[in-house]
Specification:
mainly beta; Immunoglobulin-like; 9-stranded antiparallel β-sheet; 6-stranded antiparallel β-sheet; 35 strands
């Protein structure tokens, strides 16, 4: 079984009583879930060329190709002192305060949901924008601060992370899964104090969504551009160097007190209304769960204990979404560009890349290829006279991704040709060997 120790129910999705303490054990999901009514289309754009590639990547869409996902909303609020009253009438205190995601473009499953292009571990890339559906229920537009009424301006905090700002780990010794997430969280900032970049985005009535209906919450889509040249390096050793992360949280201008009600779904009248924020997420429930073994594409959530320096089931600062009973995925997109696509599609069966180019005699030449179906594959190097000087790959390979490193220290610096053959398809490209 995949789910063992450190699995926690995703309590902010619930409309039920939340247990006052958290033990190091599994906690089952009970009660209602908050449904989202999508109101906007995901953004799309695509530029694909040998020297330039740009596109949106939606990691949760990939998981949706592999298992069944249900779409919900999750709420964010600066503190846990406010409560939600579900249709059952049993209130619970708001439990989550920030949500984030770690993304890498070299997960081969990404080609399941867009343009069949996967960046390899050798591709540096730039993150241009992030996109996420959201809800912003704005009941209060102005408040009296003693000198008259002022317009309420709440704040969306968006933080961006690179590898030094994140922590990588694994859990579940019997069947290890990997993750990356924030290394700290500070309640005063409503975020981490070591983010690569932080944006405080004002929220006004123009950003608001409608109050919830009987069917659920309506959502809008928000695109947040990153600062120019937010560059991510290549990751030849698959250590996570090229993992991008971001996190969102919410600050409100409206004073709140212990026991105030954020939302009532049982028909009760809320006398002191509040503004609140939420995000879109997917959960795979009891269906097939997708283990994350090598590539980093996970979400994380910051709970009430975290904002006061505590831990939940041993998880400090946040809990990765793949550590819950039902895996949880933030619904988001990342727009990336790269000047070094590097991968090519030979036919409908194989996508391959040969790196680096130029390659030094002191380096290994690396070949990555992904097969839809099992096939004979050969990658060989020839000199300019057509003489084979080296076999990089030669054999029968099963479907899936394969990586081969070749020692080229015996080659003389100069221009060579590498030939790739898979089944009946073949192609040849130039490669330069340098000192």
């Amino acid at each position: 079984m995949k789910r063992t120790l450190q699995r926690l129910a995703f309590t902010f999705l619930l409309a039920a009583v939340v247990a006052p303490t958290f033990a190091q054990q599994q906690v089952k999901v009970k009660g209602e879930r908050a449904h989202e009514i999508p109101m906007s289309q995901d953004p799309t754009s695509n530029t694909k060329a040998k020297a330039f590639y740009a596109n949106w990547k939606f990691p949760a869409d990939v998981v949706g190709q592999l298992t069944t996902l249900d779409r919900y909303v999750g709420f964010l609020y600066p503190d846990s002192v406010v409560k939600i009253v579900p249709a059952s009438g049993n209130p619970y205190f708001q439990f989550t305060h920030a949500v984030g995601a770690a993304f890498t473009p070299n997960d081969p499953n990404l080609e399941l949901s867009d343009d069949n292009t996967v960046l390899s571990r050798y591709n540096a890339y730039t993150v241009d924008s992030v996109y996420f559906p959201y809800l912003y229920v704005r009941y209060i537009d102005s408040i009296d601060l003693g000198a008259g009424k002022v317009k309420v301006v709440d704040t969306l905090v968006v933080q961006f992370f690179k590898f030094p700002n994140l922590v990588k780990g694994s859990f579940n010794q019997a069947d290890p899964e990997s993750f990356m997430k924030n290394t700290n969280f500070t309640k005063r900032l409503m975020g981490a104090n070591n983010a690569a970049y932080t944006m405080n985005i004002p929220l006004t009535d123009a950003d608001s969504t409608s109050a919830p209906s009987d069917q659920g919450w309506g959502s809008k889509g928000k695109i947040v551009p990153l600062p120019a040249n937010f560059n991510m390096p290549a990751d030849p050793s698959l250590t996570g160097q090229n993992v991008f992360g971001f996190m969102i949280s919410f600050k409100t201008m409206i004073p709140y007190s212990l026991g105030d009600t954020m939302e009532a779904r049982n028909g009760a009248e809320v006398t002191k209304k509040l503004n609140y924020f939420g995000h879109s997420l997917y959960s795979n429930g009891s269906t097939t769960q997708i283990a994350q073994k090598e590539y980093i594409n996970n979400s994380w959530w910051v709970g009430s204990e975290h904002i006061y320096g505590g831990n939940i089931n041993g998880w400090e600062n946040s809990i990765p979404g793949n550590a819950y009973f039902s895996d949880q995925y933030l619904n988001y997109g990342v727009h990336i560009t790269t000047q070094t696509l590097g991968t090519e599609k030979l036919d409908n069966n194989i996508t391959f890349g040969v790196y680096p180019n130029p390659v030094s005699t002191t380096e290994n030449l690396m070949a990555d290829f992904n097969l839809v179906n099992a096939s004979n594959v050969s990658i060989a190097i020839y000199d300019i006279l057509g003489n084979k000087v080296m076999d990089v790959v030669d054999g029968y390979y099963t479907s899936g991704e394969h990586k081969v490193d070749a020692n080229i220290s015996g080659l003389t610096p100069g221009m060579y040709i590498y030939n790739v053959k898979a089944g009946n398809a073949t192609t040849s490209k130039k490669i330069s060997v340098i000192d």
